[in-house]
Amino acid sequence: MFEKRLLTLPLTKSFFLFGPRNTGKSTLIRHIFRKEKIFLIDLLNFNQEDRYTRNPDSFAQEVLALSNDVKHVIIDEVQKLPSLLNSIHQLIENTDKIFIMTGSSARKLRYGGANLLAGRAFVYSLHPFTSFEIGEEFTLDHALHWGTLPAIIYKMKTDEEKADFLRAYTQTYLKEEIWLEQYIRKIDPFRKFLEVAAQCNGEILNISNISRDVGVDDKTIKQYFSILEDTLMGFMLEPYQTSLRKRLSLKPKFYFFDTGVCRSLTRMLTVPLRPQSSDYGKAFEHFIILECLRLSSYYYPDYRFSYLRTQNDVEIDLVVERPGEKTLFIEIKSGSDVREEKLSSFIHFTKDIENTECLCISNESLAKKIQHVLVLPWKEALERYFYKKMD
């Protein structure tokens, strides 16, 4: 399981590792440094958090007292106590210790004036498993329905266990990430918002409609989306910034970080996903976009992702700006028989745009070319454009 992870972490440099809960951050770190002597602080442990909250100076005192053969100091869920970062800053400057800090939320660090160590620690992200990490055990329908969190892949054996886990996941998120951290005053509107936001997953955001459905004002809805981003539950896909006059939409889309978590929030876990249905198409698009972003996070961190929609409602699902290469325009089709008429709008819109490469990611079994658009099976497309196969 650990050897399959695509993320490469440094052994001799301090770093942050961010990722949603249950993506395996702590487990991966402890595996990587299993042969090293470490000093571990788990801030999800109430006793440890309380001790350092009451006496912040004790952290530096304990680190300075470590023997020379203890080189690595690991702090799990560092966002629980951002004040520790001031001590870590000084210790990086004045000792030879290496600090590894994990976190499932950046909100306190971002808005609380936390010391982010001014480049003295690298920043990495860990996501749910990609299809390449799961390997031969991967099945597309399972990933679309249940997602790819480690517990779903390796621990939960039955559909009932998987559904129970995902429901508990969202409840734990509400309780521990939102309510206990006092990010909001009332939990019920936010709970309703989560369901509405999941129903709008992958759609251009209409804040006014969402605020009406939830029963709060537009400002609160924007705050709620900000909370989702900061707690790593999802991300905004911004509209493509280009001089093309055909561009119209300037509103972002929002995607949850995992297909299974999204289906749990929409209460659709007991409803089968049937190929050729609209729900299947949406789930497939969601999965492909997640795969592209996860892989690029590991291999091509300078890629920039967006979408494009024109006045005539021609939509390009994914625009990938690749430094030094042509911009990649991607159409995502869940069908297994992609014909020219299904791509006509995409073909017409993109044919005269210079310095671009046009790709359709699909469920086709074999690659083919339709005019200037390369149609690829999804796994082959990901391997060709976003995955680096190691020798």
Can you describe this structure?
The chain is 40% helix and 17% strand. The chain has 391 residues and is of the alpha/beta class. It folds into three domains: 124 residues, 3-Layer(aba) Sandwich (Rossmann fold), CATH 3.40.50; 155 residues, Arc Repressor Mutant, subunit A (Orthogonal Bundle); 100 residues, 3-Layer(aba) Sandwich (Trna Endonuclease, Chain: A, domain 1), CATH 3.40.1350. A six-stranded mixed sheet has the order 8-9-10-11-13-12, with helices on both faces. β12 and β13 form a beta hairpin. α7 packs across α13, α10 packs across α11 and α11 packs across α12. It is globular, with a radius of gyration of 22 Å.
Key traits:
Rossmann fold, 40% helix, Arc Repressor Mutant, subunit A, 13 strands, alpha/beta, 3 domains, five-stranded parallel sheet, six-stranded mixed sheet, 391 residues, Trna Endonuclease, Chain: A, domain 1, 16 helices, globular
Q: Kindly state the number of beta strands.
A: 13
For the largest beta-sheet, the strand count, sense and barrel status come to: 6 strands, mixed
Task: Indicate the percent of residues in helices.
Answer: 25-40%
Q: Tell me the β content.
A: 15-25%
Summarize the structure.
With 391 residues, the chain is α/β, with parallel strands linked by helices.
Topology:
Layout: E1 15-18, H1 25-32, E2 38-42, H2 46-54, H3 57-64, E3 72-76, H4 84-94, E4 98-103, H5 107-111, E5 122-125, H6 131-134, H7 140-146, H8 150-154, H9 159-179, H10 187-199, H11 207-214, H12 218-230, E6 234-237, E7 253-256, H13 259-265, H14 278-299, E8 304-309, E9 315-321, E10 327-332, H15 344-350, E11 356-362, E12 368-370, E13 373-377, H16 378-385
Parallel strand pairs: 1-4, 1-5, 2-3, 3-4, 10-11, 11-13
Antiparallel strand pairs: 6-7, 8-9, 9-10, 12-13
